[in-house]
What does this fold into?
Amino acid sequence: MSSNQQVLLGSRPSGWVTEANFKIVESPIPRPAEGQILVRNHYLSLDPYMRGRMNDTKSYAAKQELDQVMIGGTVGEVVESKSPKFKAGDLVQGMYGWQQYGCSDGTGVNKIDASRVPMQAYLGVLGMPGVTAWVGLLDICAPKAGETVVVSAASGAVGSVVGQIAKLHGCRAVGIAGGKAKCDYVVKELGLDACVDYKAGRLRDDLKAAVPGGIDCYFENVGGEILDAVLARMNAFSRIAVCGLISQYNATEAYGVKTFQSILTNRIKVQGFIVSDRPELWRKAVPDLIGWVAGGKIKYRESVADGLQNAPKAFIGLLKGENFGKQLVKLV
Ligand SMILES: NC(=O)c1ccc[n+]([C@@H]2O[C@H](COP(=O)([O-])OP(=O)(O)OC[C@H]3O[C@@H](n4cnc5c(N)ncnc54)[C@H](OP(=O)(O)O)[C@@H]3O)[C@@H](O)[C@H]2O)c1
It folds into this structure.
């Protein structure tokens, strides 16, 4: 490899993001200065939050700047180290973005152990999405055994972990996902009690049938019509963890929720959260997740795009539901 391929944000989308919003460029491979490391990225994580960063609006995090490397989590190998904290050959997880090589002083870069799980698991089930599932379900919803937990985007990186943790805690777990294949996976592979295919055209009836005792906890990943249908089935004193609203990320007009009154009449506790606000919970969540994955109690699935040049297409696919499990880009 003689140069560093990078994907930059070329322009801000209005409505749906397109491949034309990205620029693919070749740059020289950076040379590490004293105290720095050079990392060859093996996998890039694609995540829905990146869509929000592409907008020029106020949010919980800084916007992605134009003509800069797109933000993103990566795992890879230290190929040159001028830092006493790392040596060549170390496998690391960091935020080097949409590029083949990253160079930094190692701040925010963690060594990873890939002896029991493949390195890319640290971008999914053992990384930010897995911890998000743990925090939203166990800290915010706090379900008790026997309660009914519903999760949307149930076959995805976050949702698949939510449903399985709910089962491990003795709950009745019901997924909502798009299409028969995803719903079959959620029930037959992940072991949830039921899954509603929201694309089948009977969302409200199918959800009603799947939760005969109502819903005690809802892990919200999508918003829109699904949120409306779920709110109508929530029990008194139920809880909602608002993790994401992916149906709205490319919308030019916000969906108006019609069943908001359920929050009052059912005294529902609704809390939005951003996983990075809770660093103290990562220390609890990661060992749990490693134990569950290594013990075969939590399964996961990946969609892997090949090569950085395919990252924009894969990212748009993720926002449209074309991924099936954690969306990654293989760079090596
Ligand atoms: N708060 C936090 O700290 C935090 C951290 C990580 C992720 N998140 C949020 O968690 C959610 C899931 O993220 P993820 O990384 O696990 O992605 P993911 O579920 O692996 O992939 C996204 C999925 O969203 C579903 N989807 C897309 N458009 C939809 C629509 N219009 N209606 C319903 N479902 C739609 C698709 O599944 P179907 O085919 O089933 O529709 C798609 O596969 C996102 O909203 C994300 O922003 C939040």
